Amino acid sequence: CAPMNTMPEIAKAQGCKWDPLVNVWLSKEAFEESENLSTVEKFLSQGPWHHYLHQNGSGTVKPEYERLLGAWLMKREHLIHCQLTLRQSYFWMSKGYGTTHFFKHTVHCLRFLLDTIFENPPKDLDDIQAFITPFP
User: Fold this and answer.
1) Contact 41/62 with Cβ under 8 angstroms?
2) Residue 100 pLDDT level (bands cut at 50, 70, 90)
3) What is the mean pLDDT of the chain?
4) What is the 3-state secondary structure of 11-34?
5) What is the mean pLDDT of residues 1-25?
6) Phi, psi of 27 (to 5 degrees)
7) Distance CA 12, CA 4 (A)
8) Between these two residues, 75 and 95, which has the higher pLDDT value?
9) pLDDT of amino acid 124
10) Domain spans, the chain
11) Torsion over CA of 74, 112, 103 and 97, rounded to 10 degrees?
């Protein structure tokens, strides 16, 4: 709908909606898809999320301005963002919208999620507990 670095006033005037999960401007049609609204609500309900200019937590940034300024966020938000963004990206592709992120971001999120798990692996990590079937 609008490039990531568009001023909020301009993006809103073009009818774009800020998606706080993926941090991009979406068309009203895409933003208001029920699956998207449900995913964004799930993300927001696990907050409140605060974004900062500095890693020490000073200088609060409004989410829709972080693409202009850059922002620091908590690891918990980063984890939930990655989990739900991967889900949302698959949804966008299945609806024919394309994805809101570059492939590099997908790889980053997968690596970040796995690195976090392996920092503190669950005791049952090596237990046999998943049954796989041929797809589809």
Assistant:
1) no
2) low
3) 88
4) HHHCCEEEECCCCEEEEHHHHCCH
5) 87
6) -65, 155
7) 13
8) 75
9) 96
10) 8-119
11) -50
Q: What is the mean pLDDT of residues 78-105?
A: 84
What amino acid is encoded at 1 in this protein?
C
Kindly give, in sequence order, each residue whose CB lies less than 8 Å from that of residue 68, ignoring residues fewer than 6 positions away. Answer: 5, 7
Amino acid (one-letter) located at 95? K
Percent of the chain with pLDDT over 90: 49
How many residues belong to the chain?
136
DSSP the chain: -B-TTS-HHHHHHTTEEEETTTTEEEEHHHHT-HHHHHHHHHHHHT----EESSTTS-SEE-GGGHHHH--B--HHHHHHHHHHHHHHHHHHHHTTS--SS-HHHHHHHHHHHHHHHHHS--TTTTS---------
pTM of the shown model: 0.79
